[in-house]
Amino acid sequence: MAAKITTLVENSLGEHLALQNEHGLSFMIEIDNPRTQILFDTGQSGNFIYNAGLLNVDLAPTDKIVLSHGHYDHSGGLKAFVQSFGSDFELLVGTGFFNPKYGNNNGAWEYLGSNFNREYLEKNRIDPILINEDTKEISPGVYVLTNFPRTSEFEKPNKRFYTYNGLDYELDCFTDEVVIVMEVKAGLVVLLGCSHPGLVNIIEAVRTRFNKPIHCIIGGTHLVEADDVRLERTFQYLKGLNLPLLGISHCTGEKATEYLKKAEERFFVNSTGTSISFER
């Protein structure tokens, strides 16, 4: 048995310069037995669909779409997918996904949320599944995790991100954030969206909920806005994990990425078009 993860869109390009990159993230998970296709995030546009065509990834048989959280750069391509392939899939999102999300720019509010709402989904006969369990198995050996305890004292909520309740803006604690964990022969593969609840908080939750070693971490860490103290403590944490594979990017930031290139032997920049296969 095997599983393959392809990064359909990401901020950066690798060697395949015909692909289209953007500030966003989208993964395709293909599992051969039982045959399953899970799309994790859809970038900010339909570019992931264009890239899938160049990468020989058939999106039509997609069984499930999981959206890591309700920011535009992770959910904005859903409408393009529906327009191209219809709505014969399960949509899984975290609790709070439909709360309008904003960024605070020195008192000016910028909408950062999704380009669709519940009415759009209802019109297209899509009944979203809200994930509220800590750990939910969505396919044999594939899990969606949410509800991450804030055990790391240096990972504070980002005061730039808010939700709007119709009357007031409230600090966004990202109760909707979900990650995917897949069991493979070598251990666990962890797929991250943006890690808004904190990379260490998320990984510690994974370690607590599974009695298996983490083999690989891929995705976004939102270290781009981290101060030096948080960066150093995060680097020390990652070093202690002694990961065989580490492929973080997207919102990780140039400073953190350059450090990891030098310090982590098995680090790779997980750019648009990257694919990696695992035995299961």
What does this structure look like?
With 280 residues, this protein is an alpha/beta fold. The chain has one domain: Ribonuclease Z/Hydroxyacylglutathione hydrolase-like (Metallo-beta-lactamase, Chain A), CATH 3.60.15. Helices cover 22% and strands 31% of the residues. It has helices at 47-54, 72-75, 78-85, 118-123, 199-209, 228-241, 254-263, and strands spanning 2-9, 26-32, 35-40, 64-66, 90-94, 101-105, 108-111, 129-131, 135-139, 142-145, 161-164, 169-171, 179-184, 187-192, 214-220, 245-249, 275-279. The strands form three sheets. It has a seven-stranded mixed β-sheet with strand order 8-5-4-3-2-1-17. A six-stranded mixed β-sheet has the order 9-10-13-14-15-16, covered by helices on one side. Strands 7-6-11-12 form a four-stranded antiparallel β-sheet, with no helix packed on it. Strand 13 and strand 14 form a beta hairpin.
Q: How would you concisely characterize the structure shown here?
A:
The chain has 280 residues and is α/β, with parallel strands linked by helices. The protein has helices at 47-54, 72-75, 78-85, 118-123, 199-209, 228-241, 254-263; strands spanning 2-9, 26-32, 35-40, 64-66, 90-94, 101-105, 108-111, 129-131, 135-139, 142-145, 161-164, 169-171, 179-184, 187-192, 214-220, 245-249, 275-279.
Q: What are the segments in which pLDDT stays under 50 over at least 5 consecutive residues?
A: none
| Rg of Cα set | 18 Å
The separation of the N and C termini measures 5 Å
SSE series: EEEHEHHEEEHEEEEEEEHEHEHE
Tally of individual domains? 1
Helix content: 10-25%
Provide the spatial order of strands within the biggest beta sheet.
Answer: 8-5-4-3-2-1-17
Mean pLDDT: 97
CATH architecture: 4-Layer Sandwich
CATH topology: Metallo-beta-lactamase, Chain A
Give the overall silhouette.
globular
Which oligomerization state do the chains in this entry correspond to? Answer: single chain
Beta content comes to 25-35%
The major pleated sheet works out as:
7 strands, mixed
- CATH class bucket: Alpha Beta
Number of continuous helical runs: 7
